[in-house]
Amino acid sequence: MKKQPGKIGYNDKWAKKVGKSEFLKQMNEAYPDRKDEHAAYWDKKFGKATPEAAK
Amino acid sequence: MSVLNQYNCLTSEGNTEAGQCPIDIDAIVGFILLPRSKFFTATDMATVDSFVTALQAATLAPKGERIYPVHDIEQQNDQSEENTYETRALGSMAKVRDGRMDITYRLNVGGLCLYQQLAKFEKRTDMAALFIDDSGLVFGQQRDGNLYGVPLEMIDSPRIVYNSGSATTIYGVRLRYKQSFLKSGFGSVKLDSSDWDSIRGLQTLVIESGGARAAGVSQIKLRIGCGLTSDDFYNLYGEQIAAADSLVLAKAPNGNQLEVTSVAVNPNTKGFSVTVNTSDPDYSAANPVTIYFDTPEEIAAAIPALHVESNVFTTPN
To answer: CA spacing 20 to 30 A to B302: which of B96, B141, B279, B292?
Structure first.
């Protein structure tokens, strides 16, 4: 039986540097079944309104 | 000032009243291997607490400055040389030289693991030792107000004596050094006897394959060499490792750093999934990725219970 997915420790420094699009692109490629989780993390960490603001 | 051909031995005298608090070396319960060039300053030794802090920090220092505490020495086999004397033709006797201290310390804990780790020092000729006695006295030699280790002429891992049926297996380490520091240049600091327990050496954090790399995701497992299995490590530290993802580092085959973009616990393998920046020009899906951890100091700062140094692991393609 497949177990519940475990915690992902995102590299915030890298995420902030590359921006939301690149962050989601790479995370969705790496963990395609957890797309909602990546997007929710970004919004919670960096805010919905600033998708590329940190770039 | 030095004067040519003048050797003043008439001042070689000592005051012989014993005093009320003489230093009296108790049974040796441990020692610290350290580079000969490593020393502790008067500031380090200003208080017991500052000395303990300096010793603890030195266990995490980069190689070359790091100290290696060895605990639980319970028995010693003293095969030191006697001093050498010459008996002359008419019966007078003169001392030729001091014998070497040469002691095999039995490792009470650590078994074959610690034995093998200490065997790695056999070829080192630049090491020294501080000794710790049962009362908490840390001693070596002092120079210019600093505390150094006693230079070791030999570090050897003697033959193991197997369990005899009535006695347990004997693992030991043999240290050979000059005794002169005991006569002149002796340096010591008295710790509280419990302080020694707080000065611990590193263990090896072993990174192993946790499966094939797929879609840029490397799979690793972690265990403590001679300690925790990968399952135990996962259960104890899994979440903390994922939370401290910046501890995990990666390199491309050309040696250039690759940014680790995430570290996730993987409940299916009881390991960890590691992703790197796949947009980095140094990254190629066709090439392996080398994964390792940050310095022991950084690991201990993030997860204080982890006193480890990692190996370097190259993932399969």
So the answer is: B279
What confidence tens digit (pLDDT) does each residue in A1-35 have? 556 778 999 999 999 999 999 999 999 999 999 99
Interface test with A, best of B240, B274, B275, B315 (most A CBs within 10 A): B275
SS3 B99: coil
Answer whether A9 sits within 8 Å of B267, measured CB to CB.
no
Task: Name the DSSP class of B126.
Answer: S
Contact A14 B277 (CB under 8 A): yes
* Continuous segment of H or E residues that includes residue B221: strand B217-224
Q: What is the per-residue pLDDT across B194-232, written as a single tens digit (0 to 9) for each?
A: 899 999 999 999 999 999 888 889 999 999 988 899 999
Q: For residue B152, how many other CB atoms are within 10 A of its CB?
A: 23
> For residue B241, which residues of chain A lie inside 8 Å, CB to CB?
9
Question: In this structure, which amino acid lies at residue B109?
Answer: V
A3 touches chain B (CB under 8 A): yes
By 3-state DSSP, what share of chain A in percent is helix, strand and coil, each rounded to 5?
60, 5, 35
Longest dimension (CA), chain A: 41
Q: Residue B259: which of A5, A14, A32 has the nearest Cβ?
A: A14
Nearest-neighbour CA in chain B from A49: distance (Å): 22
Angstrom CA distances, B111 to B132, B142, B168, B169, B304, stand at 20, 33, 10, 8, 25
Name the amino acid, one letter, at B61: A
Which chain B positions have a beta carbon within 8 Å of A10's beta carbon? Answer: 245, 261-262
Please report, for chain B, how many H helices and E strands are present, in that order: 5, 22
> Residue B205 carries which DSSP code?
E
Q: Band the pLDDT of A55: cuts 50, 70, 90.
A: very low
**Rounded Cα–Cα distance for residues B84 and B226 (Å):** 44
Written as one string, the DSSP assignment of B167-207 is S--B-EEEEEE-SHHHHSSEEEEEPPTTGGGG----EEEEE
- How many angstroms separate the CA of residue B305 from the nearest CA in chain A? 19
Please give the backbone phi and psi of residue B297, each rounded to the nearest 5 degrees, phi first: -65, -45
pTM assigned to the model: 0.90
Residue B52: name the closest of B150, B196, B186 by CA.
B196
